[in-house]
Specification:
Blueprint (H helix, E strand, L loop, with lengths): L2 H49 L5 H16 L17
């Protein structure tokens, strides 16, 4: 083979290797995303089972929990996990 064909063949091999890395990274991302969704689905199912809630009442359950957290602290001492905005000036 002449030098031009060898360079072309080498560039094709490099391109194939790069494409394989991209596909592996994409597949890994899909698997991680799927695992996250499954975890969320299991957590929601556990919440529904624990509260005997329907799909539409999960949002209101979350809102009532957040309201309880917000009401548990005083004005001077913020509740854990909540952001308190301070006025500047």
């Amino acid at each position: 083979m002449d030098e031009g064909m060898q360079q072309f063949q080498q560039s094709l091999v490099e391109l194939e290797n790069d494409a394989e890395h991209v596909l592996l990274a994409r597949n890994q991302y899909v698997v991680e995303n799927d695992n996250g969704r499954n975890g969320n689905r299991e957590a929601l199912a556990a919440l529904r089972k624990r509260t005997k809630a329907t799909k539409t009442s999960i949002k209101s359950l979350f809102e009532s929990i957040m309201k309880d957290i917000g009401n548990s602290g005083s004005r001077d001492a913020p509740s854990v996990g909540l952001v308190v905005e301070e006025k500047l000036g």
